[in-house]
């Protein structure tokens, strides 16, 4: 057989050979660092025997695929360590992920001390240098094998595989795990690892199934790479909005109020108000929207018409017995309410599009295990809008929605931090009986609408991925996502194409022939959820927000109480121009006041004393350039007013002022 290597050279072998043996033939040194093989572009286990002609690349830890193999094997070592220390624990799944690996166990919860003990046990296993051997069993024998080992979750996984499947296992020193691989040849090849944290998870991600304990870890080929990553983790913890937002007194939570129900403090509320007023003025004055105000709850009848009662009932807060016809529910969305605003009067084709927007407070019964700070909450406020349009207007209006979203992201300074997604239906859903389907209408209609959105994304020139099964039940959508500091992706903005819902509500417009015609609907947000956006901005800016967003934009620092009157004059001059300004009149030394203001991440500090009072100036210290020197008060007022008006994002050119 002929094996074509990465450099184009060809090796010939008289008989089939495993990838690891080919690596040894090429170089013993290469074999020692080999993690997997890339055969005709596909990652294969080193134990895979090749027959016939192939292209082969030996994958090492310097390749992303090789690092995943290291992490995958590390997850198996961790599972073995857990079983050694906690024999009653049941193993489930343990994949490699972007930042490391995890493994889920049906077991007790694990403290930091427990994780340290598991790490120590991993060290023993790695030092013993167990070879990983792969073997396969027919499906029935595989089920029996795991039943005998009392591993019910593995049994379930095997039983879900097709009849006649050949099931693969890996054995390392007597610990056997169901796994497709690939894996390292020996545990001794794991050089640097760390268990990061433990949390709760659900079996197969289903809140109706067993609660499990998940251990997260990571592994690298070198200790210095691991140390750099752990330092990175410490750095991002300082940006975690759930920590930093509390430190900055932007929000808090209280157990007796409930999980997923944060309290926004005056500072956090001030930031939300700034964003809300900006978005409302932007939509209404520049993008042609009209504003609505609709109820926070409705009878079940409304949600039955919209389809949410059938498709989203578990995510709703009910006020009463769902079997009672008078049962009410807090709204998880605004769309059906705005449909009735539209239908309150008759519309001609000339009136369309009708663009309705609302600052909507919504309620969703999120699972307790999903709650986190401001990003996943049970009550939130959103920039929700619905456009009622003629079919011939649909493409251009979706483009406008996308342009508005991009404009908002640009002003916030985060447009380069997002990814675009075309969220599609799952075609397999249409093979189910109609009563069990998630999606309405026909698969052909879905394909047609998905193509419209695909064409729009291509035309506006954004890179995007296509996500199967992520569409809403009534139509595909464009999702604009961002990652938090830990790498978890959340949807920030959504634009949905809906050709189907108008018929359910009897919506129509009068066309040029005097006939009633069904409109199309666009569901969209211009910025998304205010709480989630605030969390994102806290992390992205590490609390050092653009001046216009800061809840406190200027702090006046009199050198002593003798200059309190002039400090108050400065405050009034700024407050008269709607600048958020305070005065620090405490009898502390000026150096202390400056350090404290710097720790509070303020954009500007104005030091005032005898010289400033005499000349009508302020000594400006900023987060951006440090000591900016003395400026006439009127000049500084004009400068900051323009910075706020234009929503300028100043670059930090100097270290924080001392």
CATH topology of the largest domain: BirA Bifunctional Protein, domain 2
- Average pLDDT for all residues: 94
What's the total count of β strands? 35
Low-confidence stretches: none
Beta-strand content: 25-35%
Share of residues in helices: 25-40%
Structural shape: globular
Main sheet characteristics: 8 strands, mixed
CATH class of the largest domain: Alpha Beta
Q: List the total number of helices.
A: 20
CATH superfamily of the largest domain: Bira Bifunctional Protein, Domain 2
Question: Terminal Cα separation, in Å?
Answer: 71 Å
Description:
By secondary structure, this protein is α+β, with helices and mostly antiparallel strands. The protein has 4 domains: 2-60, Ubiquitin-like (UB roll); 65-231, Threonyl-tRNA Synthetase, Chain A, domain 2, CATH 3.30.980; 263-296 and 331-541, BirA Bifunctional Protein, domain 2 (2-Layer Sandwich), CATH 3.30.930; 547-646, Rossmann fold (3-Layer(aba) Sandwich). It is built from 20 helices and 35 strands. The strands form 9 sheets. It has an 8-stranded mixed beta sheet with strand order 18-22-23-30-27-26-24-25. Strands 2-1-7-4-5 form a 5-stranded mixed beta sheet, with helices on both faces. Strands 8, 9, 10, 14 and 15 form a 5-stranded antiparallel beta sheet that branches. Helix 3 packs across helix 4, helix 5 (139-148) runs antiparallel to helix 6 (152-159) and helix 8 packs across helix 16 (530-541). The longest helix is centred in the first third of the chain and has 22 residues, at 64-85. It is globular and about 90 Å long. It starts with a strand and ends in a 12-residue tail after the last helix. The relative contact order is 0.07.
């Amino acid at each position: 057989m002929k094996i074509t290597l990465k450099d184009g050279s060809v090796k010939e072998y008289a008989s089939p050979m495993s990838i690891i043996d080919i690596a040894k033939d090429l170089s013993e040194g290469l074999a020692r660092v080999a993690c997997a093989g890339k055969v005709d572009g596909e990652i294969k286990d080193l134990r895979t025997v090749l027959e016939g002609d192939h292209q082969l690349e030996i994958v090492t830890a310097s390749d992303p695929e090789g690092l995943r193999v290291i992490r995958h094997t590390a997850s198996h070592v961790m599972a073995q360590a857990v079983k050694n220390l906690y024999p009653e624990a049941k193993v489930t799944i343990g994949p490699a992920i972007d930042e490391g690996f995890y493994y889920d166990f049906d077991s007790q919860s694990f403290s930091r001390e427990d994780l340290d003990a598991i790490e120590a046990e991993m060290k023993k296993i790695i030092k013993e240098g167990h070879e990983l051997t792969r073997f396969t069993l027919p499906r029935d024998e595989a089920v029996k094998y795991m039943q005998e080992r009392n591993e019910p979750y593995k049994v379930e996984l095997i039983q879900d595989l097709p009849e006649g499947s050949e099931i693969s296992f890996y054995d390392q020193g007597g610990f056997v795990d169901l796994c497709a691989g690939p894996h390292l040849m020996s545990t001794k090849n794991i050089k640097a690892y760390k268990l990061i944290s433990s949390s709760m998870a659900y079996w197969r991600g289903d809140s109706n199934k067993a609660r499990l304990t998940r251990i997260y870890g990571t592994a690298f080929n070198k200790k210095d790479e691991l140390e750099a990553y752990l330092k990175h983790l410490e750095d991002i913890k300082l940006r975690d909005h759930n920590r930093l937002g509390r430190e900055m007194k932007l929000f808090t939570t209280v157990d007796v109020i409930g999980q997923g129900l944060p309290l926004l403090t005056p500072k956090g509320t001030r930031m939300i108000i700034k964003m809300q007023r900006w978005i409302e003025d932007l939509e209404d004055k520049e993008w042609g929207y009209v504003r609505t105000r609709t109820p926070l709850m409705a009878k079940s009848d409304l949600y039955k018409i919209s389809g949410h009662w059938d498709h989203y009932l578990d995510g709703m807060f009910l006020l009463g017995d769902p079997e009672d016809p008078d049962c009410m529910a807090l709204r998880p969305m605004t769309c059906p309410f705005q449909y009735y605003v539209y239908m309150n009067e008759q519309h001609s084709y000339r009136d369309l599009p009708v663009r309705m927007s609302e600052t909507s407070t919504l309620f969703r019964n999120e699972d307790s295990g999903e709650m986190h700070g401001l990003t996943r909450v049970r009550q939130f406020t959103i920039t929700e809008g619905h456009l009622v349009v003629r079919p011939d207007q649909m493409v251009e209006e979706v483009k406008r929605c996308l342009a508005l979203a991009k404009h908002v992201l640009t002003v916030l300074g985060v447009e380069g931090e997002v990814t675009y997604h075309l969220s599609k239906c799952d075609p397999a859903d249409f093979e189910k009986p109609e009563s069990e389907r998630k999606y309405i209408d026909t698969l052909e209609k879905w394909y047609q609408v998905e193509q419209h959105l695909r064409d729009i994304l291509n035309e506006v020139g954004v890179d995007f991925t296509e996500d199967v099964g992520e569409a809403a039940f009534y139509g595909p959508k464009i999702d604009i996502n961002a990652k938090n500091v830990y790498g978890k992706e959340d949807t920030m903005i959504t634009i949905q194409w809906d050709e189907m819902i108008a018929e359910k509500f009897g919506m129509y417009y009068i066309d040029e022939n005097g006939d009633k015609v069904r409109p199309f609907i666009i569901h969209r947000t211009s910025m998304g959820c205010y709480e989630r956006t605030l969390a994102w901005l806290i992390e992205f800016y590490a609390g050092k927000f653009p001046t216009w967003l800061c809840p406190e934009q200027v702090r006046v620092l009199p050198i002593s109480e003798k200059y309190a009157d002039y400090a108050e004059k400065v405050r009034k001059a700024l407050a008269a121009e709607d600048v958020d300004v305070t005065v620090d009149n405490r009898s502390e030394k000026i150096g202390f006041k400056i350090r404290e203001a710097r720790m509070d991440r303020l954009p500007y500090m104005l030091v005032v004393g005898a010289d400033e009072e005499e000349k009508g100036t302020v000594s400006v210290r900023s987060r951006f350039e440090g000591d900016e020197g003395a400026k006439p008060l009127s000049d500084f007022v004009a400068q900051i007013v323009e910075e706020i008006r234009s929503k300028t994002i100043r670059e930090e050119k100097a270290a924080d002022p001392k």
